[in-house]
Amino acid sequence: MNISTDPWIWLAAILTICIFSFLYRDNFFYRLAEHLFVGLSAGYLIALTWHNQIYPNLFSPLFREGNLMYLIPLTFALCYFSRFIPKFSFLIRLPIAFVLGWGSGVAIPAVFQRDILKQIQGTILVGEAFSRWDTGLGAIIVMIGVLCTLIYFFFSQERKGILKPISNIGIIFIMLGFGASFGYTVMARISLLIGRFQFLLGQLLGLIK
Amino acid sequence: MHVLIALLILSFEPPGKPIAKDQPNDDGGKILITWKLSDSDSLLNAYNIYRSTENEELIKIGSVPKETGLFIDNKAKDGVKYRYQISAIKDGAIIANSEISEPAASSSQWFHTGRINILVGLLLYSVMVLWFIYQARIGKKMFIRRIPGLDALEEAVGRATEMGRPILYIPGLSTIDDIATIASLNILSKVAKKTAEYNTKLIVPNRSPVVYIVAREIVKESYADAGRPDAFNPDNVYFITENQWAYVAAVCGTMVREKPATNLFLGYFWAESLALAETGAATGAIQIAGTDSIFQLPFFITACDYTLIGEELYAASAYLSREPLLMGSLKGQDWGKMIILFILIIASILMLVGFTDIRSLFDV
Predict the structure, then answer these.
(1) Is ipTM strictly over 0.95?
(2) Which of B36, B95, B182, B351 has a C-alpha 20 to 30 A away from that of B28?
């Protein structure tokens, strides 16, 4: 055993164990680590935002290079603080409306391209897929899955008659997809836990290399 | 030896005269250069690309491996005319030069001609949605099928009221421009109205500062709409931190300390979904989740009582409010799905009978 003498390693290990103590129940040590984590992360993110966002994207071009165009985003940013002055609090709607409008304008064509056009292109049956029986079968299964799943998400029709069995097949395809995704993601989460144990057993206690 | 090298150089064919033109469908600053490969291409190592303006000497701006007849100069200044020359390279030495290209200048385009299919699709979809909104407004009845997760909302609020415990509402961890966040905030207004009517405490911790501001205004307005502006407590809608796991640690702490009767996780989530839902399940709360993140849905389905899958989250605001605008929009979306369904079937049939060009309609 080669126990670490680095105080920072010890501090990190103690805080890790404090967070793990939540598995037993809520307690003083968990609350201590939680509050420390929230406070430190908030402070750290303020510094990070200044250095990575505000200074290079606003402060430097406006005050060092004298580009007055940047007064527009500065004004928008200052509108967020108007909520502290009740008389002018309505001004906060301007930057929020801008962000929402910009976000929708950018997102809608991108989603249409990525989630609709490309998916249609990938689902259409092509002759080459049937050059082998297994790829042909795969293409047909994908096509049936897409059609049934689309019908599952029809909201303006009652699920009766032919729609009922089709949407039931749709939910089976959805659950199969989720099952595969669940297994895949659980493995990634377990690797996070392994990472913490590697830290405790390796860097702190020196039991593993 | 020098004679041999000279003979070798003379035997190499130079690359064809380069054709320079503005790169189409971009925001400027790029010139596309193409050339016919040297007949001796297989013996070469690379091609160097040289550039000059009207009065300057040629300067090397890049290099591409052999068998490549294309280069994009992405350091051009819009409006400035450039000429290009291609040199064939073998063992680090220039052994043949092409002719110099005709001048070309870069410029930006307002319209991306490669995305006309997106424009047509969006216009068609918008017309359909607007038509159904119009239909809903003139009073046409519109049906919406049962969504169990949303039916359970009323029950969940009632349960919290009976137990005298709060409701915890997480509007996802994404930013305000995310469609799932917007859908979640629409649901928040309906939930807040119900909690105001029942006089139940509603806790809304936020990760994004902008979402926090919007959520706070929404809850405040909902309390006012319900005729209970005095019941609104601004301290119940609060910002924690933008750090993902610090936020989760704080919310998990809130769950075990405040012991909410109902947890609502509606919006966009990442890896924290299971940590939140698992802690909530351990406290015995009734949990309703909804997200369009396909990677997190399996975790919510496992750990929550009801889960809104993908588009059910978007349909929620129409379902809860039954407002003509939202109902019409939902009907329009359904027709959009119907059209996609028919396109898939017809395009597949056409492809299989030999009309293979149909697939290129979806190129972007």
Answers:
(1) no
(2) B36
